[in-house]
Amino acid sequence: MTSVGVRTEAEDTGPSGYAAARLRLLQEESRSGPPRRSALSELTDDWLAGLFRAGAEKLPRGVALVAVGGYGRGELSPRSDLDLLLLHDGSADTAEVAALADRLWYPVWDLGLALDHSVRTPAQARKTAGEDLKVHLGLLDARHVAGDLGMTAGLRTAVLADWRNQAPKRLPELRELCEERAVRHGELGHLLEPDLKEARGGLRDATALRAVAASWLADAPREGLADARRRLLDVRDALHLTTGRATDRLALQEQDQVAAALGLLDADTLLRQVYESARVVSYAGDVTWREVGRVLRARSVRPRLRAMLGGRGAAAERTPLAEGVVEQEGEAVLARAARPERDPVLPLRAAAAAAQAGLPLSLHAVRRLAAVGRPLPTPWPAEAREQLVTLLGAGPPTVEVWEALEAEGLITRLLPDWERVRCRPQRNAVHTWTVDRHLVETAVRAAALTRRVGRPDLLLVAALLHDIGKGWPGDHSVAGEIIARDVAARVGFDPGDVAVVACLVRHHLLLVETATRRDLDDPATVRGVAEAVGSVGTLELLHALTEADALATGPAAWSAWRGALVGDLVKRVAASLSGDEPDSGSSSEGVAPTAEQERLAVEAFRTGGPVVALRAEEPVGEPEPLGVELLVAVPERAGVLPAVAGVLALHRLTVRTAELREVSLPPGIEGAAGSVLLLDWRVAAEYGSLPQAARLRADLVRALDGSLDIAGRLAERDAAYPRRRGTVAPPPRVTVASAGSRLATVIEVRAQDAPGLLHRIGRALEGAGVVVRSAHVSTWGANAVDAFYVTGGDGGPLVGERAVGVAREVEEVLGVGA
After folding, report:
1. Residue of 156, 74, 149, 69 whose CA lies nearest to 115
2. Which entry of 2, 78, 119, 678 is 20 to 30 Å from 454 by CA?
3. Phi, psi of 195 (to 5 degrees)
4. What's the CA gap between 584 and 743, in Å, rounded?
5. What does 292-350 look like in DSSP terms, one character per residue?
6. Distance between CA 614 and CA 671 in Å, rounded?
7. What is d(CA 211, CA 76) in angstroms, rounded to the nearest whole number?
8. First to last CA, the chain
9. Each residue's pLDDT tens digit, 372-416
């Protein structure tokens, strides 16, 4: 309520009385925020009602003064427009209505207040609203100020009824309006000079959510939304008072004053508060608009479906995505059997599955995971690390899924160091994003470069952590190295990998700064970079990280010129380091088989068929195995690799690591000649339990004798249950390793992991007429990095262009199905 003094002075209908009361109200330091906006609205109501009654003896019946828009909601900021509608029933003389309008509008203009006004009958107001979405939105907040209350009440009832009846048409229009505004004004949650009203996540979006709720079709998540909206309004109030203008743009030069007016520490604290509020509104909008789309789709399908089912409803289809995660109505949701209280990896598995499928995580799923999920042990189990890498490698869909996790506090629960960079502004015109969003965007950019590196998992994690030191005193690269070392160890990387991630974070600016500021012809320049990096593999990762970081920073941070300079430096450093890279043979040469492997090889030789064993022992250094070990021994023959890989794909087993090599039989075995192929793989079920070894062996026998059509069975399954893949993965890359082996040619394949990938690679190599002597398969998240040691028919390495031709053939085969 306004104070007695304010109300008494406002009874003077002249501009001076209202202006004095208004000024005193705005100068009251004890009153701010919602109470001041409400008091200012009430004061303005009293003044306008007085103007309306000033000519009461001539006042026609059937006339009302109505506040709409923000004024209708009772949320007047110091320099807000007054949105007013003079409503009449059409029976009064036109001149009398015009005179009343003049008596209202001119005093407002005399005070220099912005006024948005109209004079209409209820029918005209409804017609205009039907033609102009913005008018309709304003009328949803219509509030009576003076005159005939019945006129206002009748209009409100009619406008709301129109809105609800027209919702299937108007809500898509409103969504399009919000999206267009976001394109023009950007994201409030990241901009250095944001528009509090127009940017995505701003006050207009919050108003749009109120309109959606008024339609009764869907409602926004309410937790935190009212507080977020209130904080944005408080900032706008302070901005108006600080500048004395009706502005919604929080310019850099005004941020310190606005922060001081709100009692905040500094401008960074102010921006962080704005960003947090904007993200709450944005996330609520994402969830709400998905629900609107679901309801409208259901409404369009339901009549036909009911007719087909004889009036019965149909349960929503649920398609498995991963263990404990299914797709339902365009969202990733938890399976009915999921138990987040017993499955600490489920949040990351659900997020990775959603991002890889290009689906949003449902609000209910995220909240359930946040409410009852178990914390991960330290260090993380191998599966958790793999799921994090898979999430980061999904490309653009990662952003929406990451924001959903962050909205419910799951990111800081998984990575406590994230709290320091969350919503942290970057006061640098080159940067487009806040620190946290820049880190996620860098991972998105790095996902497109994974074919260029041998360890995509290290690239993606380093991309996520490279600026994690911002917010700490001193050089953020130095601080970041310490934090990254701790995070990488907690996530479960071994000491060697931890050292690489720490090195990448420490030196993530080294290449671009050296290439643009130093003489590359000076041997000391190249030597300094080589000493800092240490190996060709780390240099390869740093090169990709440098490009991803620059691309995620903004358009001014990367160019063809900078890319060429960095590329030249990398070539020089790689040449300097190449002497440290030994020329290796096949890594399985000279490695004696274990007793278990030797036993299986002897059994395979004696039976003349495959022998299969599944073992679930924990590997050294892992807190939890990533799948189980599968050992397969088969007498040497053509087609073993594609046959085994195909059988595993049919049983929905994912190959995490794999090695294929020849094992010579021990001496003393009667009739022994030649060798046995041994496959030592680590596999995991996509979902459900692992099959029995006997079933795998039976199918493998059929695959080897040609009675099991693996390619046909896989094609049939894919046609019946197409795999949902929302990510646009980089194309596969197949190359010939330049320093591979003296005894064989090394064909390296880097591709997106998928069911049957190894089967297709094996068939492609077989079709190219080469013999696979050994294979080394690694899966890093969703990326497969595989090396195949192949020979020609003469048993030697491929000669000349033959090796390049084989690589090209394999790449073409994989590209067709990518």
Report:
1. 69
2. 678
3. -90, 110
4. 10
5. HHHHHHHHHHHHHHHHHTTT---PPPEEEEETTEEEETTEEEE-TT--TTT-TTHHHHH
6. 28
7. 19
8. 66
9. 988 999 999 999 999 999 999 999 999 999 999 999 999 999 999
